[in-house]
């Protein structure tokens, strides 16, 4: 691997500033034999400094992006929903939903992470409210949905059905899908189940819910980077139960004693919140002290991870890429994402080279990190331009 630095050759923009401006080129090389029998190197990955638009891994910029050299990369102002409601999706579960932005705009559904994370008002800000009809909803047991932290009738396939029920309830023929972390998992699974209902996708912090990903984060891999955050998570579990932390936490998160549930939920949630940013984010870490949030977040996450996402195989999502290969998609990944390491985004990119792959070189996992936020907003702008230019 070779790390190169070159002078900036891009036009200046009032939205972007860096002094002195640089482009960081990260080049993976492999030898090729020349006609004279010698060796030469060829590169196939370049990533720019996040102060400028990150170049795709493959040279597959969409036509609309080539035509429009500068796009907004800043969050839109905070807005309030113009309608909210609750939709009964089973004899047990009711999910909260809301709509904001333009009621006649292009529909986009935001799929939150976790599982169990719920939505927040800031999620609306990734989308141009004059162009998009923005739909947020809380998945079963999360956020404002009821019953709170409930694991019964709560599987990936139930959530996919819920998304379809919500689309039909809102009388939306098709929509754009936006999801990060577990939201990327569910976005992929939903789109593979209903490819004819998806106009485009934006995926962030790729999580394919494979055993090696769970083991990395919950069985000691990420502890090599965050040993200080890991020890409280580890020390809640007696040494004789540390053969599988996911199973040990399952026992406590489903205890008959609510105090034990809360204690385990706080430890589980704080571990994730302390590792979600490249640089510590105090406000994010404080979410682990909220018992209401932590209980849903930890119980539902653990439930899905113990059950391997309810997928028939470890490679289920990668095996079905052909079903969605035609959908305009952008993948955004932080280089130093500890929660969902880049190996998963890279595997998805290799299986789906047609998708626009953006690597943010100085970011971790959170959508709220500056470089990732900028790429997510720009990806929405790109799809917006494609829709606007259709038929022109």
TrEMBL record:
Record's subcellular location: Cytoplasm
Keywords: Aminopeptidase, Cytoplasm, Hydrolase, Protease
One cellular-component annotation, GO: cytoplasm
Domain (AB hydrolase-1): residue spans on this chain: 107-369
InterPro entries, sorted: AB_hydrolase_1, AB_hydrolase_fold, Peptidase_S33, Pro_iminopeptidase
Pfam families noted in UniProt: Abhydrolase_1
Gene3D superfamilies reported for this sequence: alpha/beta hydrolase (3.40.50.1820)
Family designation: Belongs to the peptidase S33 family.
Protein's name in the database: Proline iminopeptidase
